[in-house]
Amino acid sequence: MFMKIKQVVVVEGVTDTIKLKKIFGNDNVDTIETNGLALSKNTLNFISDVNNVRGVIILTDPDGPGLKIRDTINTYLNFKCFNAFINKRRIINSKKIGIAEAQEEDIKDALNNLITFETENESITWKEFLYNDFFESDARKKIAKKYNWSEKINSKRLFKWLNLMNLNVEDIKKIIGE
Questions:
Q1: Of 7, 50, 51, 175, most Cβ neighbours within 10 A?
Q2: Confidence bin at 46 (pLDDT 50/70/90)
């Protein structure tokens, strides 16, 4: 029995679409392909229109270009969409690190654990971020592991994403202590 995904999944390319359709069935998942970094204004407008009707899930490759595409779409949609993350360490393919190369279970897990970002308020200040050493390598790695983000996430992006997820100091300390 295939799981049906009601939102449209934004991926980078046709091989990602093929992989998702193989896992979920042709009629159970719809995708929009960004054509990698060649993401056009027309495609962004289309993603926005679809998001207003069905919602979108951003599922880009866990590499530098995938992160840039994710940031571009999130910003364009004012973070009013879902994000799914694949842990790049779980992809067993030395040539390419992408959705098409990810394991079926990891893709299903990512789509079952969607993350939404909130832009309304700041849940942690920069001072609290620094005071609690959340920028330190060990803390960054634990937080990144929890959400399947890259362990190489920089402090500025980590701070931004923690705020976008509306996590406070106590929430982050629990993650680090797990």
A1: 51
A2: very high
